[in-house]
Fold each of these.
Amino acid sequence: MDYPKQEKEKIRKRIEELKKEIEYHNYRYYILNEPIITDAEYDRLLSELINLENRFPEYLSLDSPTQRVGIEPVSEFSTVEHLTPMLSLSNAFSDEELLAFDQRIKKMSGIEKIEYIVELKIDGLAVALVYEGGILIRGATRGDGVTGEEITNNLKTIKTIPLRLWSENLPDLLEVYGEVYMRKSDFRRLNKERENQGESLFANPRNAAAGSVRQLDSRITAQRKLDIFIYRAIFTNMEKKFTTHQEVLNYLLKIGFKINPHTRVCKDIKEAIEYYHQWIEKKEELDYEVDGMVIKVNSLALRRELGFTTRSPRWAIAYKFPAQQVTSIVKDIVVQVGRTGALTPVAILEPIQISGSIVKRATLHNEDEIRRKDIRIGDTVIVQKAGEVIPEIVKVIKEKRTGQEKVFIFPEHCPVCGGKVFRSKEEAVARCINLSCPAQLKESIGHFASRDAMDIEGLGPAVIEQMVDKGLVKNISDLYFLKKEEIQILERMAEKSALNLLQSIEESKKRPLSRLIYGLGIRFIGVHLSEVLSKHFSSIDHFRKITKDDLLKIKEIGPKSAESILLFFQEKDNWWIINRLREAGVNLGGEEKEKIKEKDLPLKGKQFVLTGTLQEFDRNKAKEIITRLGGRVTGSVSKKTDYLVVGEDPGSKYQKAIDLNIPILKEKDFKEMINR
Ligand SMILES: [Zn+2]
């Protein structure tokens, strides 16, 4: 549709207004922690903007807050040159070196007393952001200091990085440096999720932040919770307006940047050293990792006078916190079996105190690590604990060996269930792949009962915990042989809830094969691959004779998943369980499935989006029906969407579908469609 010029101009102005307003509320919320509108009001502004941008894509611009969600992956990053080289700092390792630093400055400048500004040194990833006319145009990693990798789209997903700045009076060109980091709490959550999914863990928050910010797919970056502190600015035409670094930081905060609140001006080096010592212990209270302090001259005039050496500024120095290392003795090495079956060797130590906590164990990561460091039972070792990292053994003091030390032999069988241990070529981790291994049982039952799997209502963690501890359930198939009397002995389980639970267990027998495959918890096989597998192999029995080639012929299946599938179905115990499921009447695919020919799939190739609450179906059920009939459910409305199914209280998808002229189905219409 052609809009009159005036109309279009109005819309362009409204988009500009909305962008400014939304970024301002981001600033109030994320930087100042002082929101002035409700979440609902904020969502309204955002959805108005999304709408207008969809209708008038010519006005979609790089600085729009709608661009924070990440975009299509790139194959590699391009390199960019920093406007000014990002120099590294020289280091001090003792108070004396800091005093010497102060002496040098006094001597060079002839000034008696130097004022310093002291900042926490955040343990993250240094980045440079460039703003032109107040708009973020580029973001890059530090790289070698001269050139870095261009990661603008990834950095845009960090909510505390302003896409545009606030002030009437902004520099034409501004480059700021900051440290991207992951909060300790988010790091723990991320690692927990990865552990549950059988993925490798990040060693510490810094690695997690660096790995997240350097993702080729910025949509993954957007899912990781990252944050930033800005600590330096380079202006083209305003530097002379400020006399101290502190004024610069205050200004940066005012125009939209996040500044660390613990930065402090110290009247002399003595006060700076005192401030440093306060933080050695206090840093543990922060939700982010700090590995030292940076001491900078506060006066900008003095900085200009001092200048730079070839490698670093003369007016700043980093003072790292001491690494906490203590010696101990390895009393034993034991193997723990994690919830995903991973076998982790752990050193049992003579108890020691590090950074205020007692340490009795240290992780040895895996077999290779033990061999590489040549750690033996009885060895005297140096143990280190830094921040979020689990205590680890840095090295063996071999001079202290007596010849009595014992070399550790990694077990070939799971120490918990006696099942065979498998070690894949690609990863160093050894795993127990026995489905009924008690070490993994609670987790695997929970997964089996989860909504995307067999969806057994009422079978939550507390119930599972008791069932396993009381020995009622030794593997997933036991669920189907439970009796009411057995369930009733569990705590807080009245007769009615026992009956309800039995009822939902009964109902779960009818779930489609894909849900069962997913529920088995085969490594690397998520919801999507389970659906793919169930489409290719219509019955579980097909997996008996399957070969790696059969699997690799399927385009979605890579070598890693293929190997994992084979391993799972080669395990005899797992077939014993599958056969008990068969005995109980659980749907394992088969004839019924084969009856549905492609031409009988009425929704074949159709894309659906769901919004609002449906009366008769929950999301999963509606999704399952659509998929069974050959359709597909996606998360957001686009031109490719064929139908939007609308329930009560629809979200912004509803308006979007109207705007894009996409057919809308009420629940009644949808029911008709699936019943035909
Ligand atoms: Zn086991």
Amino acid sequence: MKPVYFISDIHLGAPSLHVEFEAKRKTELLKFFDTVIENGSRLIIVGDLFDFWYEYKYVVPKNYFWLYAKLKEMVDNGIVIDYVAGNHDFFLGEFFSKSVGLRVYQDGFSEEINGKKFLVIHGDGLALKDSGYRMLKKILRKGFVRSVIRWIHPDVGFSLAKAFSKKSREYTSNKDFGETDGMMHLAEKKTNEGYDFVIMGHNHIPKFERFGKGIYVNLGDWLRNFTYGIFDGEAMQLLTWEFER
Ligand SMILES: [Mn+2]
């Protein structure tokens, strides 16, 4: 079979990034997508593709036109694209599934690929003693919150989101309140239950860990590590995308 590619935590539009770096990331991401078209059969995006995503009934952000076009090109070339929502881009509506042709999952998925059992989740909300976040997640994902936000004009809404994001986020720090441990914990549990591969993102720390017969892969990110996963039908590999930095 042709390889399946995995990528996560690209955080497009993160306001703390320099314009040049963002342009470079875009160029490299497009090259990566071309590689998938050339060599692969499937791309699995494991959350936080965008630093912030919100879509209205008739409106999507125009900054990412290049990305929509590229994803559509991939789909038209026969690439199956799965998109698992992360904690930054959980407001996914119908745009990617209906207009671009992606398979969108709000909470990840499990699937057998070429006889191997995969569990693919973003990995947020797995802190060992953090029920507050889980509660917040439940509330934010409720329909009424979405419909309230819909009444904010897009120009205002996106400016607010940017300002908020700039204040509250620090990508380089690993303040995770035991979340990384929680992720490892779950990965170990799931491999014990018989999963061959447990794939996550979220904490931006690339990891390739064997638990018994199973393997936990954390895909890292495309902010500092530029890592991605590849499944050739038998084995998983965690690789670094090479380019001049
Ligand atoms: Mn995340």
